[in-house]
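User:
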Amino acid sequence: MKTRKITRRRMLKAGSAIAAATAVPTIVPSTVFGKNAPSNRVTVAQIGAGGRGNIHLRSYLQLPGAQIVAVCDCYGSRMEKAVELVNQQYAGRFDKAGYSGCEMTGDFLELLKRDDIDAFSIATPDHWHVPIAIAAVRAGKDVYVEKPLGVAVAWNQALRAAVKRYGAVLQYGTQQRSSRNFRFACELTRNEYIGKLERIEAWCPGILQQYGSFNVKQYGSTAPAPVPDDLDFDRWTGPAPRAAYTVDRCTKFGTYHIYDYALGFIAGWGAHPLDIAQWGNDTDDTAPVYYEGKGEIPSEGLYDTTSTWDISCEYANSIKMRFMDWRIAEPIVSDYRKFTAHGTTFFGTKGWVSVDRGGIYASKPSLLNIKLKPNDEHLYESNDQFGNFIECVKTRAKTISPVGAAVQSDIISHLSDICIRTGRPIRWDPKKEEIINDPQASTMLNRSCRAPWSV
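Assistant: Predicted structure:
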């Protein structure tokens, strides 16, 4: 595609600045160029086309305000299937047989140079989230990035700084904020319909529970194996330490449960209930100051992330939170509500409210029938995480899951994991964002990158 001196992205940014001063629309009306005019659509490059990436693709395909123009993945067959899906969908929508406007590449760096791309949507293995997001932001792109945010607190902080410096729009993939029940549970809590908040319970699956009878000592082969012809393994590894390919390394199990690439479900699933805990506690700009507890890490095989945990946290305002994997949470939560795989409960002086993807529960049924008053705090309302991102790219408004909130909820996962790995309590200074009086633990807030990658 031709490189344009004044890109559509620059026009969007300039338009938002003008709108702030003159209150005029920032997007050219569809009546000028027609409903399918390029000026009405945010162009998206999908980075990662596996399980979660496929969900991204199908979500954007439902949004008339978005257009997927490129797909990138380290697996060739995934890219081919994704591009075929996109081109077939757009052929029908744009009434253009043989549409081929979506291209593919195994190298995301090529996409950074394209002025016709407004946004990156990142659904890669966890260790790639932050490096790609930072590169995209520096190249002038907006970013939707999956949870968990990064494999190191320092990486997350670097991304936050880049977003601020370059004025990027970032949406974090904690999509529960775009659900009515989660929002309402947080509104009941923040408006003290359950009384003054005293404590929180948050839980989610660990590796053993998520896969039923899965035994980490029986799976996760460490035996070297030939790299599939379909996979660019060196690029897949990217900033992580170099390692021999094994049949289990690049699978769903491996990408989530090998410490070189992820923290495990303490972060990957934990991001969801912790994000809601933060939202309901009105602590998007901070994190608990104390962490104490225990957990288990497999000692054999390929998988070496925390598999089960029970962490007690305390915020500076004395509110306490218990963060657990669901094996530990089940008997506790089942005492007061129907147990499900993951959720968040807020306990106040007058009652409790609990929420998961299956429903919302309360100590008194009448709590769930409350209508918020005009003077109550009404939280940011979104009905679609991807739709909210596209709209914010257009308007330059703040997303429902911004980078600041992402960093803070991710900090809880990291500090919980550090607490388990060091075997001792962790004290945190939320203003300086550093561990207090523990040099060894402090070194675990950062990771080095394999050359030539960096953050």
